[in-house]
Structures are given as structure tokens and as C-alpha cells.
């Protein structure tokens, strides 16, 4: 099985497991039609996957990592480190890059217009993790490729990182109730659903915090951590301010909204 097959298999398994888990142990009562949201959110990820398939193979992250290894390009390819250390360093550094990329997409208005598609979801469950504009996906690939070239990340590290990132994004966007003590223990190391849900608040102060997807150290180290929403998880409002009457679950509208609507960006970090 190739790297694409591995990623797809793990993705489908995580979707199935988390869909059952969040149905059995929900954290919040969903306010909008599950069918409507899932059709939209899964359509977006299908469209994004189609766009990625149109890209030349040599600019995909695994191919970039293979080229860096063959040309001995990048920091780790110039050092004689044990393979396991190179793997671990690559995964941690790439996770840090994703954290800063996320902050950048919140801070730069034109990028925020793209990323706002993700935040327009008026509810919060595993399908929210799939809701990214195809242009943002393309830009994310370019940023990731640059990081891979600089680091010299091994091919296996890139594959493993992609699997971990996709799995963790589904997990921390799930509407899964985790016991408070377990959540407090987990969030010392990784992003939990309660920790990341704060990031999807309509409250501006909360929306521009808790950027991590995998490791929780970045938010703590770089002063972007908020432990809980001010209204509590059951009563907090999800989505974008002033979007209650907008067709935020219509695929064509949200794809166009990222490109046509005036930028309304208030950053308070």
C-alpha cells in the first residue's frame, strides 16, 4: 500500500470511529442540520482532494521529501543523526510550522478571508476538520514543502506527520465528550476537542487563540492559550459573528465568500 493508501485508510477509519463516538457521547447538542453540514463539509474535502490530484506529483510533500533526501538538501540531511531522532525532530518541527501557518492565516486579512471558510461552520464536529477552501489547501502544501526542504525531513517522517495531523484534526474537531480530568491530562501534551473548540467561538478574543492541531506546547509557549470559553462549552456560540442569516452551509456560497466578501478582520492577539 502506498502512502496515499495509508493516509486514506487511516482517515476513513478515524471518521468511522469518531462518528460513532461523538454520536454515543456528544459534548454539545448540535444546533443545525447534520445532513446539510456533512454534505457541505465532505463536498469541500472532496473538492480539495480533486485539486491536489491535479497538482504535478513533484510538488507534493512526499515527493519533495524524496528529492531533498536524494540531493542531500536540508539540515537533517547534513547531520548524522539516528533515524529515530530525525523522524521525531521532523514531526515536531513540522507541527510547529503548522501552528505558525495557522496564526498567519488569522493575522493576514487576505489569508483570513480564505481561512474563514473553516470558521463559518455554525456547529462543531469531526466534519468541521474537513472544511478548508481549496486555495488554502494549495497554499498549505507550498508552505509545508518549503519547511520540508529546509528541515530535510525524511519521507517516512512526512508520511507519518500527515497521518498524525489528519487524525488529530478529526479528533480535536469532534463533538466528543471527554471526562474533565482526562481532558486536563491530555491537553498537557495534545490538543483536545474542548481545547480547540474555544478557537471556533464567535468571540473575537477566543477565536484568535488555541491555534494548535496536534501538540499543545505551541499555544502555551507562544502565549495563545485560553483554557475555556467565557460562556462555557455548552452555551458558547460557534461560527462567525453576524453570520446567523448567511447561507454558510451552501457550498458555492462559502467558496465564493472567501474571494468576494469584503475583509472584516479584527485581530486581538
Automatic annotation (TrEMBL):
One of its GO terms (cellular component) is endomembrane system. It is a multi-pass membrane protein. Residues 88-223 form the Fatty acid hydroxylase domain. InterPro entries: Fatty_acid_hydroxylase, Sterol_desaturase/TMEM195. The chain crosses the membrane at residues 6-23, 44-69, 81-100, 146-171. The keyword Cell division does not apply. This is Sterol desaturase family protein. It comes from Oceanospirillum sediminis.
Amino acid at each position: 500500500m502506498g502512502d496515499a493508501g495509508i493516509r486514506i485508510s487511516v482517515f476513513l477509519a478515524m471518521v468511522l470511529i469518531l462518528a460513532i463516538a461523538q454520536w454515543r457521547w456528544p459534548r454539545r447538542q448540535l444546533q443545525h442540520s447534520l445532513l446539510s453540514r456533512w454534505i457541505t463539509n465532505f463536498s469541500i474535502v472532496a473538492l480539495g482532494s480533486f485539486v491536489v490530484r491535479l497538482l504535478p506529483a513533484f510538488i507534493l510533500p512526499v515527493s519533495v521529501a524524496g528529492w531533498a533526501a536524494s540531493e542531500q538538501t536540508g539540515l537533517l540531511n547534513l547531520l548524522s543523526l539516528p533515524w529515530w531522532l530525525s523522524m521525531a525532530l521532523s514531526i515536531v518541527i513540522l507541527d510547529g510550522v503548522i501552528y505558525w501557518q495557522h496564526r498567519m492565516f488569522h493575522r493576514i486579512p487576505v489569508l483570513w478571508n480564505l481561512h474563514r471558510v473553516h470558521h463559518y461552520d455554525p456547529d462543531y464536529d469531526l466534519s468541521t476538520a474537513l472544511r478548508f477552501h481549496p486555495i488554502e489547501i494549495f497554499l498549505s502544501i507550498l508552505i509545508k514543502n518549503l519547511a520540508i526542504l529546509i528541515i530535510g525531513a525524511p519521507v517516512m517522517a512526512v508520511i507519518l506527520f500527515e497521518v498524525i495531523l489528519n487524525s488529530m484534526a478529526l479528533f480535536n474537531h469532534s463533538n466528543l465528550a471527554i471526562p474533565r480530568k482526562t481532558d486536563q491530562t491530555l491537553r498537557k501534551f495534545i490538543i483536545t476537542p474542548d481545547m480547540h473548540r474555544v478557537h471556533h467561538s464567535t468571540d473575537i478574543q477566543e477565536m484568535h487563540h488555541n491555534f494548535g492541531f496536534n501538540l499543545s506546547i505551541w499555544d502555551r509557549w507562544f502565549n495563545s492559550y485560553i483554557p475555556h470559553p467565557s460562556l462555557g462549552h455548552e452555551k458558547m456560540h460557534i461560527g462567525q459573528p453576524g453570520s446567523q442569516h448567511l447561507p454558510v452551509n451552501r457550498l458555492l456560497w462559502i467558496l465564493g465568500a472567501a474571494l468576494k466578501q469584503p475583509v472584516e478582520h479584527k485581530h486581538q492577539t
